[in-house]
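Lab notebook, bench 4. The sequencing result for the construct came back, and we need a structural model before the next group meeting so we can plan mutations. Quick request posted to the team channel:

Model the 3D structure of this chain.
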Amino acid sequence: MLISVIVAVYNVDKYLKKCVDSILVQTYRELEIILVDDGSTDTSGVMCDEYMGRDERIRVIHRPNGGLSAARNTGIEAAAGEYIAFVDGDDWLEPGMYAALAEAVKSNRAQLAACRYRRVYPDVVEDGSTGTVTVFRRPYEMLLQQLKEDESYLIQHAAWNKLYHRSLLEKERFPEGKWYEDVVFSAKVLSRVSCGVYIDTAGYDYVCAREGSIMNAGLTERMFSDLIPAYVEKESFLKSLENPELAATHRYYFYKRVLWLYRELYQKRNRGLRYHAKELVALIRERKDTFPQVYAIEDARKTERWKTKLFVFSPLLFRFLMRVNDAWILPMRLKRLQK
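Done. Here's the predicted structure in C-alpha cell form:
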C-alpha cells in the first residue's frame, strides 16, 4: 500500500532537515515523498533537491509562491499513493506514525486514520497520549467527534495528523489564498468517512511557537477575514447534511469562539481591531433563533447559554460581568479549591 506524503515547504531551512529525516526513517517504508517547494527564498528549495538525490522515494516540485493550500493542492495532483498524508515543513514525525496509521486503515478497512499529536513549545512538550484506539463505524460519527473539540480525541481540523484514502480527496481541495484552510476542508472530508480510526498515541510533533507561524500570531485581521468566514461556510455545509446534531454542535463551539474573540478585542493590545466588534455582535444576534437547538445538545453548559443570551441582550453588560468574573469570582473559587 503506497502512501504519498506531501510536504509543504516554504522558507523553513532551519527546520527542514529534521522534518524530512523523520519521514525517511519511518518504519513503514512504502512511501512516496513529495516535497513541494512553494517559492522559497531561503535555501529550502536547494535542500529539497539535495534530498531527492539521496533517496529514490523523494520527488521535488518547485512552484511559485501561492501559500500552504496551493502547495498541498499541487501535491495532491501529483500523488500516486492509495493513501495520502500531509506534513508541514517545520514539524516532524515519530518513527512509527505511518506504520500505526497504515495498520489501522488496513485492519479496519477504514478510509481515514488519525493520531494524537504533541504540541511542541520552546520550553515544554505537551502530550496527553493514552494509547487507546477508537473505531468510528457510523456515518458522521468521526465528524461529530471532531466538532465537539474534545481534547480526548485530537482529530480536529489539522490535515497533518491523518492518513486519507485518496477517494476522500477526489473532489476536495484546500481553499487557496486563505489562512485556516483546514476548517471547511476537514468537515467535508470527514462527512464522507463511513469508517475511521483514531489512535490516541502521539505520532506527529507540531511546533506551536515558531516565529512567523499562524499559531504564534495572536489576534489578527485574518481571524475576521478568513477564520470567521470559514466557520460560517462550515456551518452552511453542515446544515446541508441530514443530521441536525452536526450543525447544532458546530454552532455551540462557534458561538463560544465568537464570544472569546469579542472579549479579546477589548484587550489593550487588540485596540486596532476593535472595529470588528459590531460584526461579532450581529453574527450572534442574527442566529438567536438557533439557541433552543444549540443549547439542547448533550455537551451544552447552562453557563454558556446564559453568556450568549447576555451577549445578545447587551454586549456592554456582557463585558462588564465577564471582567467581574475574571477579577473576583474565579480567583475566589480557586482559593476555595486550594484550601
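The first helix runs from residue 16 to 24.
Will bring this to the meeting.
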